[in-house]
Design a protein that fits this description.
Elements lengths: L10 H27 L4 H14 L1 H10 L8 H4 L3 H30 L3 H21 L4 H4 L3 H31 L12 H27 L8 E3 L19 E4 L2 E4 L10 H20 L11 H4 L16 H7 L9 E3 L12 E3 L2 E16 L2 E8 L8 E4 L3 E8 L7 E4 L23 E7 L4 E7 L3 H4 L5 E7 L11 E13 L2 E3 L11 E4 L9 E4 L4 E7 L7 E5 L4 E6 L2 E2 L6 E3 L1 E4 L4 E7 L4 E7 L19 E6 L1
Parallel strand pairs: 4-6, 6-9, 8-13, 14-18, 17-26
Antiparallel strand pairs: 1-2, 2-3, 5-6, 6-7, 9-11, 10-12, 12-13, 14-15, 14-16, 18-24, 19-23, 19-25, 20-21, 20-22, 20-24, 25-26
Length: 629
């Protein structure tokens, strides 16, 4: 589990913070007013205080409407209606049971218990806390008799009330904790407590009708009045009235001593209500398993936020959720503005004749347009990663240090090298743990256009920016492959929603809405400046891993001179104006500037030349300009 440094990362967070500010203010008022102005027994005072803490302004509303003495001496009459007595009974239930449930939820989430077991433990804890503490212990003086006698008498009404309450709470917790934003599973997140609050409100609503009946049949206590002789709430004695014992009243009927009651409910009525409550409890606990994976725990997916539209069902594994989850903004180590470029050439240093390159992975906030940023995974703080360039025959060593919140590896796409240097996680090497490093070393046997990218959680990490160009110059230059200018085009797709960045994928919920060339979307992409009759070599690199991009150059055809790092023989070279660049593919083309003007390089899928489905200055996304003078 990750622990928060900044909790306000989604719009709902602001609502939750505002809600708890209101809850705190409401609780402070109820606590003050209960002790200053309301002649309620202590156990009920604390009941209203706790429920207001859990239910916020709704708890305050219940207190003012059902229990707050409107004028001195009128509490007994004010609380007499049955619906108010039902509120008091439900308050007592919720205060005890919800406290046990919430404490258990925090503990089980911290321990990493699966959600189905979490619900069972929460039920047992809530029932035990409500029965043994709030009902039998705190109400002992009201009920009379021994503690264990009160446990026996309270068992059935507490069982019924608790069942209805958990029947309301369990679905709310299941669906919201296992929904899109699974920060709700982590007790150190505000959202966890927001879901608890909403669950208590649902539980109160479901339990209330049963509590009205339980009070009417004298199976549970409702609201009461406590006026101790000589105390601040004692009524002035009328002429002829004698001093007596401490007096409690339930409704308008004064009761002296304790509140021992004899119920008129029949066995059939009690059994039927208990049976229905148990049926609702089972439905509330079990039914969500048809839609969400209750086998998962906070340790499995806690803190992950899923993309809008992702289909999750009872069989969706934790690994799929983690790979699809948004980048946690709290993991960001650096932020870069629109003036910082990716694909900057990385200079090596020599060690005993070996060219040594150093790469570090990390989480960054990267600008793809003015005012538009994505949260991505970067090599050396760049998206794309730095360009690695060396010569055929060179001995190369690349040190990779991992600072991601997960493991990673690096694959050298298309290269012939020792198997142990190839990079697939768990196949040729163990993944590089956070804070650890791995050394890749090989001799360059080939030449041409290649790329490097993550090969651990590939669906996630490459989509979030872990890729870069790998250029190997031939040992002997081929004049037919040379041009006046050279430009590398690395393609990428992005999914940005509600300020969060998700790995773009060709699946439900993963479709991209931004596209970049070398980490920038048009009109923030580069402009290549040339003169008529000059030539331009474009190295198209399919560094993306989700879509095919038909890349087109205006102003006349180009010659395709190399494919996937392999130079085509002169007789095999061909003219084209569009090539389909799939993930992992590379094409080297040479284009000649025939006429002056602004000529486009762009993907021929219209959606891929927009920014969040909108054209800006004639386009967007995978588009850039060749300006010929």
């Amino acid at each position: 589990m990750r622990y928060p440094r900044d909790v306000l990362i989604q719009p709902v967070d602001y609502f939750v913070v505002a809600w708890f500010a209101l809850a705190a203010a409401s609780t402070i008022y109820v606590a003050w007013d209960q002790y200053q102005n309301n002649p309620e027994p202590v156990v009920m005072k604390w009941g209203f205080i706790l429920v207001t803490l859990y239910m916020g302004p709704f708890g305050l509303l219940l207190y003012v409407m059902a229990d707050k003495e409107p004028r001195p001496g009128e509490h007994e009459t004010f609380i007499a209606p049955l619906w108010k007595q039902g509120v008091g009974s439900t308050i007592h239930c919720v205060a005890g049971d919800a406290t046990g449930i919430i404490l258990a939820a925090a503990i089980t989430a911290t321990l990493g218990l699966p959600m189905w077991l979490d619900l069972i433990v929460e039920y047992a804890s809530g029932f035990a806390f409500g029965l043994f503490v709030f009902q039998s212990l705190f109400m002992k003086s009201m009920m009379g008799g021994t503690y264990w006698k009160n446990v026996r008498k309270s068992f059935l009404p507490e069982f019924i009330s608790m069942n209805f309450m958990m029947a309301g709470m369990a679905p709310v917790m299941s669906f919201l904790m296992m929904g899109r934003d699974m920060r709700a599973m982590v007790p150190t997140e505000f959202l966890f407590w927001g879901v608890m609050s909403l669950g208590v409100i649902a539980g109160f609503t479901v339990a209330y009708p049963a509590n009205v009946w339980l009070v009417a049949r004298k199976l549970k206590h409702g609201l009461m009045t406590e006026r101790r002789p000589g105390g601040r709430f004692a009524l002035k004695k009328k002429l002829g009235e004698h001093a007596g014992h401490e007096q409690h009243t339930r409704g308008s009927q004064p009761l002296s001593g304790h509140h021992d009651m004899e119920s008129d409910a029949t066995s059939a009525q009690r059994t039927a209500l208990a049976g229905v409550s148990l049926l609702m409890l089972v439905a509330g606990m079990v039914a969500p398993a048809n839609w969400v994976n209750l086998r998962l725990s906070a340790h499995d997916v806690g803190g992950a936020i899923m993309p809008p539209g992702m289909i999750m069902d009872r069989n969706t594994p934790a690994a799929a959720m983690i790979d699809m989850a948004a980048v946690d903004p709290r993991d960001i180590a650096a932020t870069y503005g629109i003036d910082v470029r990716g694909d900057r050439e990385l200079a090596p240093h020599l060690e005993s004749g070996v060219k040594v390159f150093d790469l570090e992975t990390g989480v960054v906030r990267w600008s793809i347009l003015p005012g538009v940023t994505v949260d991505g995974y970067a090599f050396n703080g760049q998206i794309p990663g730095p360009r690695i360039r060396f010569r055929q025959g060179d001995r190369v060593r690349i040190n990779v240090t991992n600072h991601l919140p997960e493991t990673t590896t690096v694959h050298w796409h298309g290269l012939i090298l020792p198997n142990i240097m190839d990079g697939p996680a768990h196949i040729t090497q163990e993944p590089i743990d956070k804070g650890s490093a791995y050394r890749y070393e090989f001799t360059a046997a080939q030449s041409g256009t290649y790329l490097y990218h993550s090969h651990d959680h590939v669906d996630r990490q490459q989509a979030l920016g872990l890729y870069g160009a790998l250029i190997i110059d031939p040992a002997e230059a081929d004049p037919s492959l040379e041009a006046d200018h050279e430009y590398i085009v690395l393609l990428q797709e992005w999914l940005l929603r509600e300020r969060l960045t998700y790995p773009a994928m060709p699946m439900d919920g993963g479709q991209p809405n931004y596209f970049t060339i070398n980490g920038r979307a048009y009109p923030a992409t580069d402009t290549i400046k040339m003169r008529v009759r000059e030539t331009l070599k474009v190295r198209f690199v399919g560094s993306n891993n989700g879509f095919i991009h038909p890349m087109h150059i205006h102003g006349g055809p180009f010659d395709v001179v190399a494919v996937d790092g392999q130079t085509l023989q002169p007789s095999a070279r061909y003219a084209a104006d569009t090539i389909n660049v799939g993930p992992g593919q590379r094409y080297d083309v040479i284009w000649k500037a025939r006429r002056p003007g602004k000529w486009l390089i762009h993907c021929h899928i219209g959606h891929h030349t927009t920014n969040n489905n909108v054209e800006t200055n004639g386009g967007g996304g995978l588009m850039m300009v060749i300006e010929v003078a």
